[in-house]
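Journal club prep — side note

Before the paper discussion, L.F. wants everyone to see what a predicted structure for a comparable chain looks like in token form. Sequence:
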Amino acid sequence: MIFLTHLDALSEPGARGFDPHGAGHDTIFVVRRAGAVYGWRDACPHYGDTPMAWRKDAYLNARGTRVVCHAHGAQFEMDSGACVLGPCLGQTLTPVRIRVSQNGEIFLLEPEDDHNKSSAA
């Protein structure tokens, strides 16, 4: 697991980008809405690895109701990642697995976290 942030650091609704593997730019983002937290890869499904935000942490529309791709104008549901407006209808954002601890810490789960869970069981 990789620590990303604390729940208190995300507004409601809100979004924030992260660079958990040191790529030099945000590669994932986390969205908070209605008490739930969702993690997404920071790449528009319409065109490869196009980053979603037009500036740091600017992932949501003005009303804070959808995720928006700055390059294509595509809009996505915050909870399902489904494209509901724009050139990628029928496509979805790529989810990343996150976990919120009981004390509000948000972690990115890595594939090896599954291995560690199963070997500890």
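L.F.'s comment for the group: The longest strand covers residues 28-33. Keep this in mind when we get to the figures.
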